[in-house]
Amino acid sequence: MLMKPVYHNHLVERIRRLFGAPACRLQVAALPWHRISTGIEIMLITSRDTGRWVLPKGWPEPAERLCETAAREASEEAGLSGSVDTHEAGRYFYLKELSSGEQVACEVLVYPLEVRKVAEKWKERRQRTRKWVSPGEAARMVNEPDLCRLIASFGAAHGKFAA
């Protein structure tokens, strides 16, 4: 099911550009999900630096379709594979702190990934924790308000789920 993109901060981004602030950098995230008897669950992972709950995400590679970036990041960061949607579920904005200490504004395009396989060993298994949770719980666990709304909306569109 195609979701409406989250537009909440697009006005902020337009104002930022109007007044000469640096443009947002683009990242891509996977929204990993699977069906259970009561609806769906979302997989969240911990970030490597702060340990907060996030979606698998990263920078697109040249000549890589954005949905393929989402699938690659889910594989590398969480050991997940499955069917990635070619249409984004939405987008959100956040400030990323680079290794230099500089903060950059990022716009993150989010692509649903229906998980078919969860690997026992994967590239970043020693650096991250992963957890299946209901969409309601996932929305409460992440820090970015637009991402909270996106996850809640995605969960509601896929039927009943356990809170």
Task: Describe how the helices and strands are arranged.
Elements: H1 10-18, E1 25-36, E2 39-46, E3 53-54, E4 57-58, H2 66-78, E5 80-84, E6 90-97, E7 103-118, E8 130-133, H3 135-141, H4 145-157
Parallel strand pairs: 1-7
Antiparallel strand pairs: 1-2, 1-4, 2-3, 2-8, 5-7, 6-7
GO molecular function: metal ion binding; pyrophosphatase activity
InterPro entries: DDP-like_NUDIX (IPR047198), NUDIX_hydrolase-like_dom_sf (IPR015797), NUDIX_hydrolase_CS (IPR020084), NUDIX_hydrolase_dom (IPR000086)
Cofactor: Mg(2+)
Number of strands: 8
- CATH-scheme architecture: Alpha-Beta Complex
Order of helices and strands: HEEEEHEEEEHH
According to CATH, what is the class?
A: Alpha Beta
What's the number of structural domains?
A: 1
Could you characterize what this model shows?
The chain is of the alpha+beta class and 163 residues long. It has one domain (22-160): Nucleoside Triphosphate Pyrophosphohydrolase. The chain is built from 4 helices and 8 strands, in the order H-E-E-E-E-H-E-E-E-E-H-H. Strands 1, 2, 3, 4, 5, 6, 7 and 8 form an 8-stranded mixed beta sheet that branches. Helix 3 packs antiparallel against helix 4 (145-157). The longest helix is centred in the middle third of the chain and has 13 residues, at 66-78. The protein is globular. Residues 1-8 have low confidence and may be disordered. This is NUDIX domain.
